[in-house]
Amino acid sequence: MDKERVIHPKHYNEGIEMWDYAYSHDLDFFEGNIVKYVTRWKHKNGIEDLKKAKQYLDKLIKLNTNESI
């Protein structure tokens, strides 16, 4: 496997790298993953990534509304 594809995969590296964006906006684990999956869905895993983003969003909502988890 090409080391460059591992360190800087195309779907993470269009504009700003996700970890830089998450850090600069003080995003937590859930928020960072939501942004990551929504941002890359067209370039990597399609609808599967949108479903992953939805799982993280649903969990974030539950954690912040005292719904049973």
Which residue ranges are poorly predicted, with pLDDT under 50 across at least 5 consecutive positions?
A: none
Number of domains: 1
* Percentage of β-strand residues: under 5%
Output the number of helix runs. 4
Question: Care to describe what's here?
Answer:
This protein is mostly helical. It has one domain (3-63). The protein has 4 helices and no strands. The protein has helices at residues 3-7, 18-24, 29-40, 47-63. α3 (29-40) packs antiparallel against α4. The longest helix is centred in the C-terminal third of the chain and has 17 residues, at 47-63. The chain is globular and about 45 Å long.
Quick structural summary:
This protein is mostly helical and 69 residues long. 59% of the residues lie in helices and 0% in strands. The protein has one domain.
Quickly list its features.
69 residues, mainly alpha
Topology:
Elements (H helix, E strand, L loop, with lengths): L2 H5 L10 H7 L4 H12 L6 H17 L6
Helix pairs in contact: 3-4
